[in-house]
């Protein structure tokens, strides 16, 4: 199994798009990139640790390529917003592709360049690509949130949709 690590706003909304794909064995919500060991959800949400909410994707590269994962990732985020995603604001919600090896870095850079040259966005692509560091799984209640809390997940998705509609200048179609 291979691993990929993505940050794109609230991790509650990042799990389902990956987890439902053939070739992905597990998606873990968690925190990465900060300066506190074993941070809690409340600490990260309060912007006290420097961590970013992220998802660790475990996948079989024979069934799904890293490039496929990058495509899924770009479809879940606004790559022009450096300080949050949709109504989730702050450093802990910034969009980042974390890489574990040189091959992932090169593929992520190529994917971002392709997105930049597509002219699909009026603003520059600001998603960063950074070397993966320690990853701390989130508390159990945050794992597979969309399955455990379908009503709350639906509300979160609806809030994202409403926010995007009310901020059309900030979200590219």
**Domain tally:** 1
* CATH level 3 topology: Peptide Methionine Sulfoxide Reductase, Chain A
Highest CATH level, the class: Alpha Beta
Flag low-confidence runs: 167-173
Number of beta strands = 8
- What average pLDDT do the residues reach? 86
Arrangement of strands in the largest sheet: 7-6-1-3-2-8
Percent of sequence in beta strands: 15-25%
Q: How many helical elements?
A: 6
H/E series: EHEHEHEEEHEEHH
Largest sheet: 6 strands, mixed
Give the CA-based shape.
globular
Helical content band: 25-40%
Distance linking N and C termini:
34 Å
Radius of gyration, taken over Cα atoms and rounded to an integer in Å: 15 Å
Find the structural class using helix and strand composition.
Answer: alpha+beta
So, CATH architecture? 2-Layer Sandwich
CATH superfamily: Peptide methionine sulphoxide reductase MsrA
Pfam families: PMSR (PF01625)
EC number: 1.8.4.11
Catalytic activity: L-methionyl-[protein] + [thioredoxin]-disulfide + H2O = L-methionyl-(S)-S-oxide-[protein] + [thioredoxin]-dithiol; [thioredoxin]-disulfide + L-methionine + H2O = L-methionine (S)-S-oxide + [thioredoxin]-dithiol
GO molecular function, one term: peptide-methionine (S)-S-oxide reductase activity
